[in-house]
Design goal:
heterodimer, A: about 120 residues, alpha/beta, Transcription Regulator spoIIAA, B: about 150 residues, Heat Shock Protein 90, about 30% helix, globular, binds adenosine-5'-diphosphate, binds magnesium ion, protein serine/threonine kinase activity (chain B), ATP binding (chain B), sigma factor antagonist activity (chain B), Anti-sigma_F (chain B), ATP-binding (chain B)
Chain lengths: ~120, ~150
């Protein structure tokens, strides 16, 4: 398990997850992700799952936990490029409306309210 | 019966990936599709994590056993622990129910297992342990045999 966080304009955190996200992995990365994103004037988290090979319900806990932290600032969450199996897991968990297919640039524009077309 | 395996390990979270690797090799002969394989791995991951986290509180001592049998394109798996057991199985299986919200568990494990498995059974007794048994059929596209 590995991850990368890139901040845009101090407001948008793009988190790229790599490898396998299970209970073991979430326990290792949660605190650090949480600390990093709570710096700045964060209002959006974009989770890019393109390079994530596996995720179980621990991923739901991780994303919901950060959504709760964003709630205080009315922040938003975008889940980018989930696999078919992950899509189903998000659907069961009531997170279907947060999924998006596209590039990080698309998601950032979307987050800033600039939607093409 | 075409193949059978048993894997036992102590209740530490590192072993969640061990269980997934073993079970992935076990079904490799069936040439599963990417989606079939990832759904299968997810069920195993959920059941094994539950045994480690809830059954044994990650005590590093309790033994989790994964037993798998393959019969044609049908695979049956039993994940067993001798941990603290479940007092009310029906309640535990409700979507969003978790006894460890403080750990950011989502309570979606059983719902995901039930949705991805063809058949799932949970037997549990407080202070005795839990067995989660499921089957999954693999429809993987079969290549015509060249003789
Ligand atoms: N092997 C087990 N031993 C004891 N309790 C368990 C076991 N598996 C599940 N449970 C109980 O069932 C609940 C629901 O499990 P699950 O749906 O996987 O959600 P979560 O793991 O996120 O809590 C757990 O919170 C726990 O109370
Ligand atoms: Mg669980």
């Amino acid at each position: 398990m590995n991850y990368e966080i890139n901040m845009h304009l101090n407001e948008i955190a793009v988190i790229r997850l790599y490898g396998e996200l299970d209970h073991h992995a979430t326990e290792k990365i949660r605190t650090h992700i949480s600390k990093t994103i709570l710096q700045g004037n964060l209002n959006t988290i974009i989770w890019n799952l393109e390079r994530l090979n596996f995720m179980d319900s621990s991923g739901i806990g991780l994303i919901l936990g950060r959504m709760r932290e964003l709630n205080t600032v009315n922040g938003q969450t975008i889940i980018l490029n989930p696999s078919n199996t992950m899509k189903k897991i998000f659907q069961f968990s009531g997170l279907a409306s947060f999924m998006m297919t596209g590039t990080e640039a698309d998601a950032i524009l979307h987050a800033r309210g600039i939607v093409n077309g | 019966m075409d193949n059978e395996m048993t894997l036992s390990f102590v209740a530490v979270s590192d072993n969640e990936s061990l269980a997934r690797v073993a079970i992935t090799s076990f079904v490799a002969q069936l040439d599963p599709t990417i989606d079939e394989l990832s759904e299968f791995k997810t069920i195993v991951s959920e059941a094994v994590s539950n045994a480690i986290i809830h059954g044994y509180d990650e005590d590093g001592k309790g033994i989790v056993t994964v037993h798998a049998v393959r019969d044609g394109d049908l695979v049956s798996v039993a994940v067993k622990d001798n941990g603290k057991g479940i007092f009310d199985v029906k309640k535990a299986m409700e979507p969003l129910f978790t006894s460890k919200a403080e750990m950011e568990r989502s309570g979606m494990g059983f719902t995901i297992m039930e949705s991805f498995a063809d058949d799932l059974q949970v037997e549990s007794e407080p202070n005795v342990g839990t067995v989660v048994t499921f089957t999954k059929k693999f429809y993987s596209v079969k290549m015509p045999q060249i003789s």
